[in-house]
Write a structure and sequence with these properties.
Elements: E1 2-5, E2 8-11, E3 13-15, E4 18-25, E5 48-50, E6 57-58, E7 74-75, E8 80-86, E9 93-99, H1 117-123, E10 126-130, H2 135-139, H3 147-162, E11 168-178, H4 180-189, E12 200-204, H5 214-228, H6 237-255, H7 273-278, E13 287-292, H8 308-321, H9 328-341, H10 348-373, E14 377-382, H11 401-405, H12 411-417, H13 421-440, E15 456-460, E16 464-468, H14 473-482
Parallel strand pairs: 2-5, 6-7, 9-10, 9-11, 11-12, 12-13, 13-14, 14-15
Antiparallel strand pairs: 1-2, 3-4, 4-8, 8-10, 15-16
Helix pairs in contact: 5-6, 8-10, 9-14
Length: about 475
């Protein structure tokens, strides 16, 4: 299949009813001379450009650990999109733009997990995935700029300008992200340069809490320069990755997060995304936002030894990180509550440690952001449990992604999320919900909008139903402690 975009002619491929255009550039190529600059305009090419092979992933360290999907092919030259379109002719289709997660350190738009063919076919949409610079490339140590965020905006601008050539509707673009991609969605909602480039948003397992300050950014930039000991433009990729690792090790404890993250810079992010959400027009774009029931289990080993004293210390440290002052008796009440409701019989203390972090790192930021918006927001909780590790993981981080894309045929995916008719049915229902939202700007009527006075969310599992959030005894407990 051949089409014409602004920069030239493209030749894609067609298989199983889906046209794929892979490795399409949306900005000028990146190399050592411009590795830390803002994305530059894409020069046109002559003749026909093949778009049948995806581009390399952004430069990043090897991924180690359960649930981490490392990229096997990486390069500084990474600013490319992949477009998936039903091969059949149709009217202008809604556009679904995916932003991958990975802590702003890892990720690959060409991960087979994100193949948009099934989603494009089932929902008659155009699906787009794209790369953006990660780690110190996305942070730019020379001048502490939000380069990764600028890359995301450049990709969205390319979509707005070119998607009609693929049969997409440039007036109906939905931006969707998971984890760091969901945080990116919240950042884009707060970014003046992104206004008008998309019209709906979905944030899966990430809110607006992982944003640094200008002071933290300056400290990160200075530490990176010190670790490199030379001009970053002159360093090779291996040296850059070593400096990145050492900077993260030095600053993560005091920043209480990865120091290589977007930050309030006065330009790309003039204010914190939560403040932007509370502004008069901060909720004009419809938003679906949600989380998985046991998000943090992915990051806690099922055989981790956690004594009662260590559990108390962990909880006190987590509360202190959020400037939450509570008494020892309140800490004991929290732990007693988790014991009473049950977590996991195999290793209850480790499960409690993980589930407390799910509440503080996922649900509370989500509710804070929803409260700031106040309208035009729909919340969900994904409850499908992973069968991996003997059921230890529960509905853990990232388990919903294969259901969004309908991709269960990957060997690692089936092991992680399970398979069978129930999984297929839930996937079809989830794709239909996301497709309905992309097409109409609101979910179906059975999904109530978020209201802080009567907060509800849609639970997604073998049964799909709306429930009051504060009817959950764990949520109710934290509401009394945190003053909600």
């Amino acid at each position: 299949m051949r089409i014409e975009v602004a920069a030239g002619r493209l030749r894609g491929s067609v298989a199983d009813g889906v046209a794929r255009f892979l490795g399409v550039p949306f900005a000028a190529p990146i190399n050592a001379t411009n590795r830390f600059t803002l994305p530059q305009a894409l020069p046109p090419w002559s003749g026909e450009r093949s778009a049948t092979v995806a581009a390399a992933a952004p430069s990043q360290p090897p991924a180690i650990g359960l649930g981490m999907r490392g990229a096997t092919n990486t390069s500084e030259d990474c600013l490319y999109v992949n477009v998936f379109v039903p091969a059949r002719k149709g009217a202008a289709r809604p556009v679904f733009v995916w932003i991958f997660g990975g802590g702003f350190i890892y990720g690959d738009a060409a991960d087979p997990l994100f193949d948009g063919g099934a989603l494009a076919l089932q929902q008659d949409m155009v699906v787009v995935t794209f790369n953006y610079r990660l780690g110190l490339w996305g942070f730019a140590p020379l001048h502490a700029a939000n380069v990764g965020l600028a890359d995301q905006i450049a990709a969205l601008r390319w979509v707005a300008q070119n998607i009609a050539a693929f049969g997409g509707d440039p007036r109906n673009i939905t931006v969707v992200g998971e984890s760091a991609g969901a945080m990116s969605v919240c950042n884009l909602l707060a970014c003046p340069a992104a206004q008008g480039l998309f019209h709906r948003a979905i944030a899966q397992s990430g809110a607006a809490d992982n944003v640094g300050s200008a002071t933290q950014a300056a400290e990160t930039a200075a530490t990176l320069r010190a670790e490199l000991g030379s001009n970053p433009d002159d360093a090779d990729i291996a040296a850059l990755l070593i400096a990145q690792r050492k900077t993260i090790e030095r600053l993560r404890p005091q920043h209480r997060a990865t120091p290589l993250r977007p930050f309030v810079d006065g330009t790309w992010l003039p204010q914190h995304p939560v403040q932007a959400a509370a502004a008069p027009h901060g909720a004009d774009i419809p938003l679906i936002m949600g989380m998985n029931a046991q998000e943090h289990r992915l990051y806690v080993r099922p055989n981790l030894r956690v004594s009662d004293a260590a559990l108390v210390q962990h909880l006190e440290r987590r509360l202190a990180e959020r400037s939450i002052a509570v008494s020892r008796s309140t800490v004991a009440r929290i732990i007693d509550h988790y014991r009473s409701v049950g977590t996991h019989p195999r290793n209850p203390n480790a499960a409690m440690l993980a589930d407390i972090d799910t509440e503080l790192r996922f649900r509370r930021p989500m509710l804070r952001y929803a409260d700031a918006r106040g309208r035009n927001t729909w919340l969900y909780q994904f409850d499908w449990p992973s069968p991996a590790l003997g059921g230890w993981l529960g509905a853990t981080h990232a388990v919903e992604i294969p259901f969004v894309f309908g991709n269960f045929d990957l060997r690692t995916t089936a092991k992680f999320v399970g398979s069978g008719s129930d999984a297929t049915q839930l996937s079809n229902q989830l794709m239909a919900l996301w497709g309905h939202f992309a097409r109409h700007g609101a979910p179906p009527a059975h999904w109530p909008a978020y209201d802080a006075t009567a907060p509800a969310q849609l639970h997604l599992n073998r049964a799909i139903e709306a429930r009051r959030i504060d009817a959950d005894p764990t949520v109710a407990l934290w509401n009394t402690i945190l003053g909600r």
